[in-house]
Amino acid sequence: MNSESHCLVSRRGLLQAGAGLLLASALAPFPAQSAPSDGYRIVAAPGRARLRPDRPETDVWTYNGTVPGSVVRLRQGERARLVVENRLDQETTVHWHGIRLPNAMDGVPGLTQPPIKPGERFVYEFTPPDAGTFWYHPHANSLEQLGRGLAGAVIVEEREPVAVDHDVLWLLSDWRLTDRGAIASRFGNRMEAAMSGRVGNTVTLNGRVSEAEPFRTGERVRLRLVNASLARIMALRFEGHRPIVVTIDGQPCDPHEPEDGRILVGPAMRVDLVLDLEGEPGRRYDVVDDFYDGLSYRLTQIAYDSRPPIRAHVFDALVVLPRNPLPEPNLASAERHTLTLQGGMVSMGGMSGMGGMMGGIMGGGGGMMGMGHDAVWTINGQSMTGDGHAGMEPALVFERGRSVLLELRNETAWWHPMHFHGHSLKVLSRNGKAVPHRQWQDTVLMAPKDVVEVAFVADNPGDWMLHCHVMDHQMSGMMTVLRVA
Ligand code: C2O
Ligand code: CU
Fold first, then answer.
1. Are residues 232 and 114 both part of a single domain?
2. Are 144 and 258 in the same domain?
3. Which intervals hold domain Plastocyanin-like (predicted)?
4. Which of 51, 175, 240, 395 is the most exposed place for a label (fewest CB within 10 A)?
5. What is the structure's pLDDT at 455?
6. 460 and 408 share a domain?
7. Torsion from C-alpha of 477, 441, 31, 148, nearest 10 degrees
8. Is 47 a residue whose pLDDT tops 90?
């Protein structure tokens, strides 16, 4: 059942259902700029946004004047041209996170392109091979630039429309706001960098704290979740609903219900759900993020309008998306390597989430660890700090076309969403147990002490970043370069 496009597979068997019932409209919940023939223009510039109703407007950094930035809609297999203009007062670049594109278009300053200076522009051109949910963000002064709002979704459309009523995007961002609505300064606190990273106090959905999101009973939606946070990990529960995970990091997987009904979305990860709206007209259902112990909060509510159900019967069939053209690694001949993550603060004992402790320690301010340098994390004993720069020596070199099996070992006491550029990774096992549902990811979330095996074909030539996407962790050393020669 992997490759049939748009067919419907039953939850309990393989019954074909009437696809004719379904509307194939793709309505975005907020303006999606459609690509003009000469390409998208994306302007990075300061702006203002009302992130929460109970605070004044916030000074933010925007793409095309909004947070998140305008949605970039591309088509699988069709050439894209994106002109990025820098109207910030510092250098920037744009990284098209998760898209398998040519190295020169990858947006890593120094390594793949010169940074875009204030007042200058850079033209990105590539043909996305994979349909799915991706996103774009700066790869220069990343902690601050992402933390001030520079992020947007990239939706690469399938060649054939997918049979859902609506295509909905929830781009989730985490902000640390002061009482007066300003973004708290002091990016790069060393204490946080050695622990969970800069977890904020305000989570927005498409740029605003959300009370409720409107739906109608009987609809089937594709809900695209993007976690654009600097550091916040999310575990979402949809009360009264049974969402089905259909893609992870843009790559279709075997449709499945998430373990314990919680959808784990680490920073930079994307998860697409098919959500059947089976609630009662007029009722509201909570969507809760309870990742951090003792700090669960309501992200929003699914709010049904009072109209009668859009259709009489709920679906018995799953949406199966066509697989993307990923090269299958040959595990028998793959070369094996280990990447070991180390560093950070040692365990504070017995905590599965660190929220409570963070609250206690953060008030004490940074610097109390007495670390004399900025590197607090290592990969195989080496620390690369910052955002990327010229002359970074690769930790590993692969011959083009080789299958590679990487063992990622998290020997730290903290969570890390590990991101590899230019490729997608087939996730084979976690702590010795096979990972089901044939998942491919570009950002693999690792719990403390996790050992994860991933495999890929090194088919995309160039120097590619591999780093933790908790931005403070990346900046303070949890980064390396892998070369495909
Ligand atoms: Cu989304 Cu190197 O990053
Ligand atoms: Cu990390």
1. no
2. no
3. 54-160, 167-288, 391-484
4. 240
5. 98
6. yes
7. -10
8. yes
Instruction: Give 251's strand partners.
Output: 248
- Residue 410 and residue 346 share a domain: yes
Strand partners, 224: 169, 272
Ligand 1 atom closest to 474 (CA)? 2
pLDDT digits 0-9 by tens, 388-401: 888 889 999 999 99
pLDDT the model gives residue 140: 96
Is the domain of 342 the same as that of 219? no
% of the chain exceeding 70 in pLDDT: 86
Q: Of the bound ligands, which one is closest to the alpha carbon of residue 111?
A: 1
Do residues 126 and 220 both lie within one domain?
A: no
Regarding pTM above 0.70, the answer is: yes
Closest CA to 70 of 43, 48, 96, 51: 43
pLDDT of residue 302: 98
CA 194 – ligand 2 centroid, Å: 9
The enclosing domain of 279 has a CATH number of 2.60.40.420
Residue count of the chain: 485
Count of structural domains, the chain? 3
Residues 299, 365, single domain; the answer is no
Enumerate the H helices of 142-219 as residue ranges.
Answer: 142-147, 190-193
Pairing between β-strand 451-457 and β-strand 440-441 as defined by DSSP bridges: unpaired
Nearest CA to ligand 1 atom 3: 97
The secondary structure of residue 113, as a DSSP letter, is B
Average pLDDT over residues 151-169: 96
pLDDT for the residue numbered 4: 33
3-class DSSP assignment, residue 312: coil
> What is the residue range of 246's domain?
164-320
Residue 67 inside a domain? The answer is yes
Closest-CA residue to 199 (of 412, 361, 68, 386) = 361
Q: Which residues pair with 337 in a beta bridge?
A: 406
pLDDT digits (tens, 9 = 90+) for 218-277: 999 999 999 999 999 999 999 999 999 999 999 999 999 999 999 999 999 999 999 999
